[in-house]
């Protein structure tokens, strides 16, 4: 199963925000794992030691 175009764009935006300091309160986070759940079609991103995000097929993400 491949991610949707919207998921790919959402992943790019999330990775950019995690690895660049664009907000004063945010710190750089390393991205540890990106995985697609073939049952639900959602992407999962593990970042740093305690952040995880779920990217929906529409491209939106939530912690």
Structure write-up:
This protein has one helix and four strands; from the N terminus they run H-E-E-E-E. With 63 residues, it is α+β, with helices and mostly antiparallel strands. The protein has one helix spanning 5-19; strands at residues 31-37, 42-47, 51-55, 61-62. The model has no long low-confidence stretch (mean pLDDT 89). A hairpin with a 5-residue loop joins strand 3 and strand 4 (61-62). It has one domain (5-56). A four-stranded antiparallel sheet has the order 1-2-3-4, with helices on one face. 24% of the residues lie in helices and 32% in strands.
Descriptive labels:
63 residues, alpha+beta, four-stranded antiparallel beta sheet, 4 strands
Task: Kindly summarize this structure in a few lines.
Helix content is 24%, strand content 32%. It contains one helix and four strands.
> What's the pLDDT, averaged over the residues?
89
Strand order of the largest sheet: 1-2-3-4
Low-confidence stretches: none
Beta-strand percentage? 25-35%
Helix proportion: 10-25%
For the record, give the distance between the C-alpha atoms at the N and C termini, rounded to a whole number: 23 Å
Query: Which outline best applies?
Result: globular
Q: Count of DSSP helices?
A: 1
- Rounded to the nearest angstrom, the radius of gyration is 12 Å
The chain-level structural class is alpha+beta
Q: How many individual domains?
A: 1
Strand tally, please?
4
The biggest sheet amounts to:
4 strands, antiparallel
Order of helices and strands: HEEEE
SSE topology:
Blueprint: H1 5-19, E1 31-37, E2 42-47, E3 51-55, E4 61-62
Antiparallel strand pairs: 1-2, 2-3, 3-4
């Amino acid at each position: 199963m491949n991610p949707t175009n919207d998921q790919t764009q959402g992943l790019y935006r999330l990775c950019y925000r995690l690895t660049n300091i664009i907000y004063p309160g945010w710190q750089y986070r390393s991205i540890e794992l990106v995985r697609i759940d073939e049952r639900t079609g959602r992407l999962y991103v593990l970042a740093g030691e305690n952040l995880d995000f779920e990217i929906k097929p529409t491209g939106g993400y939530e912690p």
